[in-house]
Design a protein that fits this description.
Layout (H helix, E strand, L loop, with lengths): L1 H15 L4 H12 L2 H24 L2 H6 L3 H21 L16 H18 L3 H17 L4 H33 L5 H26 L1
Helix pairs in contact: 1-8, 2-3, 2-5, 2-6, 2-8, 2-9, 3-6, 3-7, 3-8, 5-9
Amino acid sequence: MLMFILTGVAAGALTGVPIGPVNVAVIDAAYRHTLRRAIAVGLGGACADFLYAALGILGVTPMLRSYAIVSPILYAMSGIVLLVYGFLTARSQPVAPPPHDAAAADAPENELVLGFKTGLLLILLNPAAIVTWVVITEQIADHLGSPSVPTGLLCAIGVMAGSFGWFSLVAHLTQRGKNVLGDKAAWIPRVIGVALMVYAVYLIARAVKYAVT
């Protein structure tokens, strides 16, 4: 049982390393807003990873194998969403801090809620993520044996913990870079946004390749 949790933690952390929408949103939130908001974005993304990992572990695989058209549709949808989000990120500008006499008591709570929703929706609106988790969970099952529902959910919880740990690290590193670079850090979200658009084009091309073969 512990092995499933640790495997999930490792999978969650490693799948967060490549460029993706939540990494971009965490960097953007840490640069343009606050570290608190960036961590909330990471938590939302980690919760969505838990959901998709649980679906992959507990039975989505047969559906994807039965309906071959589903995968290219998911890749195309994800590519379009990420292309738009990458464009908006590349064009983003730092947000001016609110005045001290604004509703300061409400600001932290609203910031956390907005950040969490952003991270959650970026994964849920990126349905190609479920294809990725299906592949990963199949590998886990091959090495550790087919999980039961309880052990599968424990693995998914491990995924959430690993994802959140990685996103929190990205948030702290971005905050540190922002403090060191100051205004020169404006290039960070732009470069990441362009990279995300390149990845989006790759997903769309992959969808086309699936559809014509």
